[in-house]
Backbone:
């Protein structure tokens, strides 16, 4: 009853043969080689591997302002979630006290 039932692999019936593959020979005709293309950029101009980022005082101020805004928004969301948990816990505690009081007063009457 408690032993697992393992599936068994079905045995092939009859003789199994691999499918026949037909190979047809093809002829390769040599073509004329393509002439080398001219470079699009002159060799004298160096190509930068990646664009450079220049920080001006305005962009630095914008980055600091954006970072501050993100921190304030995330902080406000976290504080509001903490406040929601605290309010929920307080309401559950009040309900527990009221129910305890009702059950205790009901037991005293009997």
Residues:
């Amino acid at each position: 009853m408690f032993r697992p039932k393992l599936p068994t692999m079905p045995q092939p019936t009859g003789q199994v043969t691999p499918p026949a593959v037909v190979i047809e020979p093809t002829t390769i005709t040599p073509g004329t080689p393509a002439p080398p293309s001219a470079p699009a950029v002159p060799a004298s101009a160096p190509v930068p591997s990646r664009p450079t980022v220049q920080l001006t005082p305005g962009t630095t101020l914008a980055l600091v302002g954006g970072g501050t805004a993100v921190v304030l928004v995330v902080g406000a969301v976290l504080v509001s979630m903490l406040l929601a948990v605290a309010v929920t816990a307080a309401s559950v505690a009040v309900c527990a006290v009221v129910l305890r009081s009702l059950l205790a007063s009901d037991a005293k009457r009997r």
Observations:
- The helical segments are 57-109.
